[in-house]
Write a structure and sequence with these properties.
- With 99 residues, this protein is mainly beta.
- Helices cover 5% and strands 48% of the residues.
- The protein has 1 helix and 6 strands; from the N terminus they run αββββββ.
- Strands 1-2-3-6-5-4 form a 6-stranded antiparallel barrel.
- The longest helix has 5 residues.
């Protein structure tokens, strides 16, 4: 799927569902989609910007920002640039922004 065509509505029904984040061929993490946020529209593109936040069960370690493969049965494989946001009481959060 072309990520340039994805919109807020593509993820709306997937909130609180589990994806897989493939960090590398050796490392895959289950991650719940926990936040979906519409952002101010500063872009000349037709798509309104938005962000998605995933949470993994990681308690002490995290992966640096980079391009990871996000896998979901409905959306297939998506290559997304993700940034670690920090830990909460459950695990590590990662964000992808669509502008």
């Amino acid at each position: 799927m072309d990520i340039a065509l994805l919109t807020f509505n593509d993820f709306d029904t997937l909130l609180n569902t589990v994806f897989t984040i493939r960090i590398s061929n050796e490392v895959q993490l289950d991650a719940e989609l926990i936040e979906l946020t519409k952002l101010d529209n500063y872009s000349p593109l037709e798509r309104n910007p938005f962000s998605i936040v995933f949470r993994t069960a990681q308690k002490n370690e995290y992966y640096e920002q980079g391009i990871f493969t996000i896998i979901h049965p409905e959306k297939g494989h998506l290559e997304l640039f993700m940034t670690p946001l920090g830990f909460d009481s459950i695990g590590m959060k990662y964000e992808a922004v669509f502008s």
